Amino acid sequence: MVELRGSALIAVILTVSGLDFLLFGYDQGLFGGILAGDGFNEMLGNPSPTLTGLVTAIYDIGCALGAVAAFLFGERIGRKRSIILANIIVIVGAAVQTACYSYGQMIAARIIAGIGVGFSTVAVPILQTETLPAHNRGAMLVVQSGLIIIGVAIASWLCFGCLYSDTSMQWRFPIACQILFSGLCLCFCPFICETPRWLAKHGRHDEARHVIARLLNKNDNDPEVKGQLNEILDVINTESEMGEPTWSEVFSNNNKTRNLQRVLLGMGPFMMNQWSGINVLCYYLAYILENYLHFTTEMSLILASVAFTQYAIFSWPPFFYMDRIGRRWTVIFSSAGCAACMFIIAGCLLSTSYACAAAATAFMFLYMDCFTMGILPVSWSYAAETQPLRVRNKAMSVGVFSHWLSNFVVVMVTPIGLDNIRGNFFWIWGIICFCFIPLTWFFGVETSGRTLEQVDRMFFDEPRICMGLNPNHRQVVKYSREDEENRYAAFADLDGKRGSIAEIERRGSVGSSEKV
């Protein structure tokens, strides 16, 4: 097997992660498109709004179960094998969906595919967070969130392209394409590495050192390699004083790592992702345009496809600013924009005129742009960045479980809510989006530019409930690649000296970082 190193290894890690999240986005956009086809609805038995919501949302229950599976044994098998197993499950679920002939079969198949996606959405963000360099980790994670939206756009255009088929290929072909994304992901999996933090935590220090060397494209005895491993081991040594972690420890604050606080903090952006109302539009935009704004089926699918294409384009600007202004301000600005758009949409839908329908459609487009330029990229990176290594897999599983359970509720209630209160449904999402602003300000810590071990030390050294009120926790640390090399080189000779790395950083003798 070819052993990739340096930028080639980082590229294949991003490719595997990207294909996984491309599939995730594709699944989000899939049912909104195929529900517009008469053939698919006939196969399902022409379901009511409640049953339509259930068959769409049951996938999210599967995803939540996948997160539970990751909680139970994901840490044991590691990040790489978790991704492989997850994609095998997705292929099985997608194959059964493609062959469906009844509502019940589709429900069961959606749950199976969801289990695979839920499992992978725990493992993939951890894989990326534990392997990408700290100085531009946020920018590189934007690639992941951008591909989610490209997946949504591909699903929408493909469903539109198949709309005019007179056979069941109208919906079977778009569903079968899930197999393609997972199959490609499995083809690249042999070339990725296990993460050095997982290897070090499980006592495989020599393997961890070699993986760090591969990621940095240096030899195993390079001072930077030794320094990075020493920093990881320093935190592992601090955590090991508390003994073997238990499941209940994830939900406890009676320890130095403050697990419960950090689990809740990591759940925050996941919950924001769903309770912003984004999947009201991702899953049902074409459905809303046709049934509530009275566009034709063809025009609804065209508008939805254009909206998702624009959504994908606007997912890339955070690459240039997320590490500069930080995660906190990115979420605050995004939440303010989302709240304003939702309020305007709700106001426009108080009238049934064509002009108001056009304005509501325009602000639906703008809402998705605001969401993808802030809440989305942060939500899929922040949880893994803020969790302690000791319980990272379990804590991440809890966050992902909350994400998918919330997704289920939102997707399930949307057809019911629109059917009963119509445009007033959007006032709810506007109020919730506005609430994200003070929550982020008071409770969020800034992770931009910090290594995962530096994030740990914020909670070790200066713990408090409202972490965002501490100026040190709000600072955006700007490291260059050179600063990072100097920092790790300073740690190279500290083998086995517990706490020495933290002491060096407190004295400010490492690197030439800029804080803003």
Automatic annotation (TrEMBL):
It comes from the Eukaryota. Pfam families: Sugar_tr. The keyword Secreted does not apply. Residues 13-448 form the Major facilitator superfamily (MFS) profile domain. It is a multi-pass membrane protein. GO terms for cellular component: membrane. SUPFAM superfamilies: MFS general substrate transporter. The chain crosses the membrane at residues 7-26, 51-72, 84-104, 110-127, 139-165, 171-193, 263-289, 301-322, 329-352, 358-383, 395-418, 424-444. It is found in: Membrane. GO terms for molecular function: carbohydrate:proton symporter activity. The keyword Acetylation does not apply. Keywords: Membrane, Transmembrane, Transmembrane helix, Transport. InterPro entries: MFS_dom, MFS_sugar_transport-like, MFS_Sugar_Transporters, MFS_trans_sf, Sugar/inositol_transpt, Sugar_transporter_CS. Belongs to the major facilitator superfamily. Sugar transporter (TC 2.A.1.1) family. This is Major facilitator superfamily (MFS) profile domain-containing protein. It comes from Saxophila tyrrhenica.
